[in-house]
Every structure is written in C-alpha cells, then in structure tokens.
Amino acid sequence: MSKKTALILTILLLFLVLAIFYVFLETKHYNSKIFPGIYIADFYVGGLSKEQAETKLYAHIMKCLKEPVIILYNDKKWFFYPENHIRFDLKKSIDQAFSSGRKRFFLYNYIAITNYRNNPLRLPLYAEFINNASEDVLNKIQEYVFTKPKDAYFEIIGDSVNIVNETQGKEVDLENLKRSIIDTLCKKYKVVNIKTKPIQAAKTRNDLLAMNIKVKMAEFSTKFNKSLKERTQNIRLAANKLNGYIIAPGQIFSFNDAVGERTGEKGYKAAPIFFQNETVPGIGGGVCQLSSTIYNLALIAGMEIIERSNHSLPVTYVPLGRDATVNYNYIDLKFKNNTKSYILLYTEVNDDTLTVRFYGEKKVEENIKFYSEVIRKIPPLLTIKKDINLEKGKTRFKEGSPGYQVRVWKIYSINGKEEKKIISEDIYKPTPSILYVGEKEKNDENSIQGES
User: CA separation (Å) from 29 to 43, 83, 113, 115, 120?
Assistant: First the structure.
C-alpha cells in the first residue's frame, strides 16, 4: 500500500469516527428529551423533557379551554364550551411523544431524529369527554341532525301492489365530532363541521321485491254500526295496527301478538262485549269483529287454522260458526301461512265497512264457498227474578234468544266435481227468558210519616 493510499484511508477513517461521534453526541442530547419535529396536536414538544412538556402543554391547554368551539351544520351554529366537559391524559400523550422513534441503538435514533426534522410527526392529544357533562349539548345537536330512516313499503292501489322505496336516515357521527372538538381546541380558528353517518332502513326495495307479493289473493268484508263511536274507534285502532303486516311462509300468525294488548292507555274505549252470557261494556269491545273478519279471510285463502274459538253468543256481522273471539292472554286466533310465498295483510275501515285482504304471489281459486248448517236450535230457558221496583202482583217478561249448534262446511270443486269438508262445529248458548215478579209494597195513604 502506498503512503498516499494510507493517508486517504486514515482521513476517511477519521471522518467516520468524527461522524459517529457527532451522531452519538446528537442522540445523547435527546436521551432525556423528546425528539425534535414532534407535536402533540398542534403544540410543539420537540426538545423538551417529559416534565417540561407536561408543564407547558398543561398551561397551553388550560388557555385553550377558555374559548368556545363553534360547531356548524349547514346554517345552524352551536357554541361548545369545553372547560368542564373534557378530561385530558397528558401523561399518556407525553409518554407516546417521548417513545416515538426511540430505539436502543443510537444510529436508529439518529435516523428517526433526522426524519422527524424533515417530516414532523403529529400525535393525538389523549382526552375523553366526561360522562354526562356534555350530553345536553351533544344531544341537542343529535336531535337537530337526526333523521329517522323510512322502510320501503307496499302501497296498495286497487288490486295492484306497488313498492315505495326506502329513505336513508342520518345521525351525527359522535365519535368523529368529539375527536374533532379535541383536535380543534388549540387551533386559531375553533370551528368544527359536523360529519354525519347514514342509517340504513330495516327494509329495502330489494327486500320487498324478494317477497314476490304481486296480486290480491282474497278479500272479506263485514259491516258495523258506525254510530257506536267507541266500538268503531276500537275496530279502526286494531285494524291500523295490522295494516301492512307481513306473514312469512310457514309463519304462524297470532292476532294477539300482532295487535298487542287492548288497553285504555293505547286508546281503546269501553264498548259492548259478551261476558257470562250477557252483553256488558268492556275495554276493546269490537276488536272481535276484526279477528272474525280475518278468520274468514284465512278460510277463503286456505290457511291452516291453528287456534280459533267462537263467541258464547251469536254475533250479527258474520254467519253462525264463522266468528273468532279473542281475549288478550286467554283466547287467540292463530293460523299458519301454509303457502310457499309471503303474504301481505291489508286492512281498511271505510264508513261502516271493515275490509281485509291478502296479497301474495297468486290469486286464490274463486270457486270456494262456505255454508253454515244449523244442527239444532237450543230454546231459551225461563228464569224467574224478583223485581223490587215492580209492585206486588205484577209481572214483566223479557224474551230470551235461542242458542244453536252449528256446523260449517267448505264447498269447493276439484276437476269439476263438487267436494265438501267440515271446517268447524260450534255451540252458541241461548240467553234465558226472564219473568220479573214484583216485590214492591203499596204505600198506605193514611199512615203517618216520620217520627211522632
């Protein structure tokens, strides 16, 4: 090796040693300090010890908390005062800043220092909203922005079925809003624009299309006395509850589950019901007309009847044997959708007429009939009762009504041949005739009234 080459190598080695020594000193300088180029939020903490960073960052934050953050949504504005609403974890923020880029080997640390100087690192300020403290403001914002999604639904026009598309809802992205408020606290312009997130509808157009509900399958109507206002309201209230109800293939429909309990709190009124062989007022009177109308629709559509009970006394709105009484928690009407398609239940109360319809994949055969056969007529018994308002020796007679044993037949055609099948056999109790016998004493006109 020549002297010139040896000299060059010596100089290079010297430069390398000096460079390493410089790097070592540079990194040693930051052994107890945060690397340069590091920010916590918008506050520069590079070159500070942990203690210095905590002191200065705390003072900076306390100053920032005095001023409100302006929250904007379209043309609406809210002022949010963060002082008592946010809790900071300065230790966690500073520990993260101190450990960022730091390794055991000093050369790796020098590379990190150089990189942060050229490309500053911005770390989050760890903070959280204090429970309940900020809920009033944030709830008001959420209430203003919130839009409830609307499900797609079937619209009935005549005998045709249309689908009205769903509408997407929206709500405030609260986590994003809270993070944005924290990030904006120490900025010159403390303004946050609200970001929303969509709320998907539970039922979409595609969901309804997949149900393949196309045509009116069958319908049945009954008449009622619209002058009985309370009873009419009960029918209308329950019918509205069922309008648009969808029954899946194989599903068992329960009238009580679908309509719910009939109570005064839900708007039901006292109207005539049957109780212990008499007609008395009861909450929800009239709802049995809806269950009976639906029962007849289920019969026409060929549904499998799971549970059904007749009234104790005959009713006037359907033929004998074709009624279905209900009593929440005790007596229900249940039938099974034994088709392979979805069924839409449609209800309508128009003037003095209650109409129910099934819509589905195809129409029900029109050659089905039902016949109520009275097997026997049960005469009313005679009951004698005393009447203290009727004078002795006089009587008053109230005629009862007969009961019936009834069999309902389904008559239909198969390949041009008429067939029939027993649907049900019911007994309706008679109401007794009553002979009232007077018990009231005649007043003696000559007797002295009162004390002597």
Answer: 21, 37, 11, 17, 19
Beta-bridge mates of residue 253: 335
pLDDT tens digit sequence for 54-87: 999 888 888 888 889 999 999 899 998 888 788 8
What are the tens digits of pLDDT across the range 285-342? 999 999 999 999 999 999 999 999 999 999 999 999 999 999 998 999 999 999 999 9
pLDDT at 64 (0 to 100)? 84
Amino acid identity of residue 244, one-letter, is G
Q: Is the pLDDT of residue 213 over 80?
A: yes
Q: Tell me how far apart the alpha carbons of residues 289 and 255 are, in angstroms, rounded to a whole number.
A: 12
- Looking at the chain, the domain(s) classified CATH 2.20.230 span 366-442
> If we measure between CA atoms, which residue out of 230, 133, 137 comes closest to residue 177?
137
Q: How confident is the model at residue 438 (pLDDT cuts 50, 70, 90)?
A: confident
- 3-class secondary-structure state, position 54: helix
Question: What token pair was written down for 78?
Answer: 């809210």
Among 2.40.128, 2.60.120, 1.10.3470, 2.20.230, name the CATH number for the domain at 366-442. Answer: 2.20.230
Closest to 335 (Cα-Cα) out of 215, 216, 424? 424
Which string of DSSP letters, residue by residue, matches 74-131?
A: TTEEEEE--TTTEEE-HHHHHHHHHHTT--SSHHHHHHHHHHHHHS-EEE---EEEPT
What's residue 450's pLDDT?
34
Q: Could you tell me whether strands 69-73 and 153-157 are parallel, antiparallel, or unpaired per DSSP bridges? A: unpaired
Task: With H, G, I as helix, E, B as strand and everything else as coil, classify residue 53.
Answer: helix
- Locus of tokens 């230790």: 91
pTM for the model stands at 0.71
Locate 327 and state its tokens.
């009593």
Nearest to 40 by CA among 109, 91, 112, 113: 91
Residues 371/404, Cβ–Cβ less than 8 Å: no
**CB environment 112-135: b (16+ within 10 A), e (fewer):** bbeebeeeebeeebbbebeeeebe
Tens of pLDDT, residue by residue over 258-300, are: 999 999 999 999 888 887 666 778 888 999 999 999 999 999 9
| Exposure of 381 in the CB half-sphere (CA atoms within 13 A) | 5
Q: How far apart are the first and last CA of the chain?
A: 159
Amino acid at 6: A
Is the pLDDT assigned to residue 160 strictly greater than 90? no
Residue whose C-alpha is closest to residue 312's, from 276, 269, 348: 276
pLDDT confidence of residue 227: 94
Q: What count of other Cβ atoms lies within 10 Å of the Cβ of residue 184?
A: 21
